[in-house]
Amino acid sequence: NKDIYILGIETSCDETATAIVKNGREIVSNVVSSQIKSHERFGGVVPEIASRHHVEQITIVLEETIQKSGLTWDDIDGIAVTEGPGLVGALLVGVSAAKALAFAKNKPLIGVHHIAGHIYANRLEEEFSFPLLALIVSGGHTELVLMKEHGQYELIGETRDDAAGEAFDKVARMLNLPYPGGPHIDKLAKVGEDTLEFPRAWLEEGSYDFSFSGLKSAVINKIHNAKQRGENLKKEDIAASFQNSVVEVLTEKTYRAALEFEVKQVIVAGGVAANQGLRTALMEKFAPTQIPLSIPPLSLCTDNAAMIAAAGMINYLKGKRSSLDLNANPSLPL
Ligand code: KG4
Ligand code: ZN
Fold it and tell me: What ipTM was reported for this prediction?
């Protein structure tokens, strides 16, 4: 029983990341080069800048990953890469690098869905129990995914407009907080009070879909109306009230889905999983149930390549390979 080493590559957004994972569960080396500084002053990720950074960084990050692992290319069993969804120009850098390596080093090429990666970040910490429910909340995603076995994903709910992280970032912008705004809202919410009334978008009875654009508009209106009255709302209270609205809907829908599908494990993934309010609310909600709740450590919540290698391991074991004409797909379905 030889150990299996998968090299993962992730360039779907603004992190250039590569990693090597052993047997799908053990991080051997994990390198992330973040571009946040370059996008900060634009208040969001600029696709052209992202692509250029990936091109500049990818070889450096790859070399560092191999060097830190103490392994050689001979030890690598497969190359897993995020093929989508994401920014097409950004994805293409990773996909091209992966194809070049697979061809040059004669290794199997494995295309991975970015969300599958976020889910499998959790398996670097803990083995999965099925059926499993995953809540994925990031800058581009808000999804509830049911898994009955490894590598099989059933989308049971998704956002109809803004992603949860996007809502955080937009509200942060209204409050003149730096990009990305999620962590800043989180910090302010800790000291603020939930005194402002904001809507909760439950949608139709039984729906596991989400909607955050109404909430975003409600925040804009509240700030605007207060200004007109010459009142000044406290940033901390806006943050706390907004965050509670998001957290309550995410927590309640995840809870209801977990009960309906009788899952054996609930996992949370994506950048917003770093949110302290969300972590606490979910832990409190699931504590009285017998359902274990797993939230990865912060470093594995945000984009990285260890999660891509971990998800790629499942495809590898199932014999799922991509051909050398693999293309980046910005709207790849799960
Ligand atoms: O998963 P991720 O790193 O990148 C995407 O694939 O989108 O998620 C980034 C998102 C951003 O919208 C950021 O504001 C949000 O995650 N985020 C947070 C927190 N930390 C990061 N949102 C709320 N609270 C946080 N502590
Ligand atoms: Zn992500």
Answer: 0.98
